[in-house]
Design a protein that fits this description.
Blueprint: H1 10-29, H2 45-56, H3 62-76, H4 83-99, H5 102-127, H6 132-213, H7 217-245, H8 263-272, E1 276-281, H9 292-312, E2 317-324, E3 328-336, H10 350-361, E4 365-373, E5 376-386
Parallel strand pairs: 1-2
Antiparallel strand pairs: 2-3, 3-5, 4-5
Length: 396
């Protein structure tokens, strides 16, 4: 068992120096723990010096310190002895439990306990006097006692370390939850901002382009009217969104979330912007009321689909169809697919991302893309929204 090359801890250096000086002082005063032993004179200084050296490595090499220290203490029993040697050995036993491996921390108390019992029984059988029990008490005091004390200290430290680790993990999880909440809230605000304002801005962009490109006063006046109406509505929507984000915005009225009851107005606004839209609302008025998150998601999906149709669809009819099934609401929007003949507004793809996110947040299924139909190629948007939150991924 080679000695550790690590630098001794300064506390260990202090303990070793103080113990060695104390031992030398006791030896100089002629105070011995084993008077009358065969090896007298300076022989007691040898175990004292060895144990002082082991104190230097009590923390960096506890197993080595305990092994050599045990041999040194055994040798000390043949000399006149030194009380400082006994005290240093008890500290080495304690350190072996506190700083040693977990296996050593379990094994040393058991070993020292068995040694204490064996010494007590052995000397009691040898001397056959009750006073022999005192030898066992001394043996327990210098071995078993420090070992059990080390176990208590080690358990306390491990419990403190575990509590600290749990606290750090809890703080880390809390920070992760906070970051995720911030990201989710930012995504929600981005979806709301896009869905509330993009429709009006797209109409403004398209009709302003038409007004600039067509030399027709009547058409320009009509386009300017649409632009003004969408500007006012977009500004109102923006003020309501700011009212959600800021308490001091001056807008003290709560922003009412749109519902499916407003689909007719939404479609009418799309027609005013130039879309040929039909609404096939197959919802049963007498049926169970849809959950508010489902109604809001369906409204926003239709709104974004109409915005995309206004920006990208070819001339032709746009169809909005809602079907309420026993456990899900199906929203389907189709529009002509191809190159638009009139002015168009650029798109970023955020609309499709937002619709997919809204659907997945409810545990539903979303798909969008071109498909063939009897009327030609169309772009379809299909969202299946579970009515019951427990019915995630509800499909036909």
């Amino acid at each position: 068992m080679p000695l550790s090359l690590a630098r001794p801890h300064r506390v260990d250096v202090s303990i070793a120096a103080a113990s060695l000086l104390s031992g030398l002082a006791l030896w100089g005063l002629g105070l011995h723990s084993n008077p009358g032993r065969p090896l007298g004179g300076t022989w007691a200084l040898l175990p004292l010096a060895v144990l002082a050296c082991m104190e230097l490595v009590r923390r960096t090499a506890p197993r080595t310190a305990l092994t050599i220290g045990t041999l040194a203490l055994t040798a000390d029993q043949f000399t006149e002895g030194n009380l400082a040697s006994l005290l240093m050995f008890t500290d080495i036993v304690y350190a072996a439990v506190v700083y040693g491996t977990p296996a050593a921390a379990r094994r040393i108390p058991v070993t020292t306990g068995l040694v204490t019992v064996a010494v007590t029984i052995g000397f009691l059988a040898w001397f056959q006097e009750p006073e022999a029990i005192l030898i066992g008490v001394v043996a327990g005091a210098i071995s078993f006692g420090p070992a059990t004390t080390g176990v208590l200290v080690r358990n306390h430290r491990e419990a403190a370390d575990a509590a600290k680790l749990r606290a750090e993990q809890t703080a880390l999880l809390a920070e992760m939850d906070r970051v995720q909440a911030v990201v989710a809230e930012r995504a929600r605000v981005a979806r709301e901002l896009h869905d509330m304002v993009a429709n009006h801005l797209s109409a403004i962009a398209i009709h302003s382009t038409a007004a600039l490109s067509l030399d027709d006063p009547a058409t320009s006046r009509e386009a300017l009217g649409v632009i003004r109406e969408n500007s006012v509505q977009g500004l109102a929507e923006m003020r309501r969104l700011i009212g959600i984000l800021r308490d001091d915005s001056g807008d003290l009225e709560p922003a009412a979330a749109p519902t499916l009851d407003g689909l007719a107005s939404l479609v009418a606004g799309a027609r005013a912007n130039g879309l040929d839209v039909t609404l096939d609302d197959a919802l049963d008025p007498a049926g169970p009321k849809l959950p508010a998150p489902v109604g809001l998601a369906a409204y926003r999906i239709v709104q974004e689909s109409l915005t995309n149709a206004l920006k990208h669809a070819s001339p032709g009819r746009v169809t909005v169809r809602l079907v309420q099934q026993p456990r899900a609401l199906k929203v389907r929007v189709t529009s002509p697919y191809g190159d638009p003949s009139g002015p168009r507004a650029p798109g970023s793809g955020a609309g499709l991302v937002g619709m997919r996110e809204r659907t997945e947040l409810l545990g539903g299924a979303f798909e969008a893309g071109p498909e063939s139909s009897p009327d030609g190629k169309v772009w379809h948007v299909l969202a299946t929204l579970p009515v019951d939150p427990a019915d995630e991924g509800a499909k036909e």
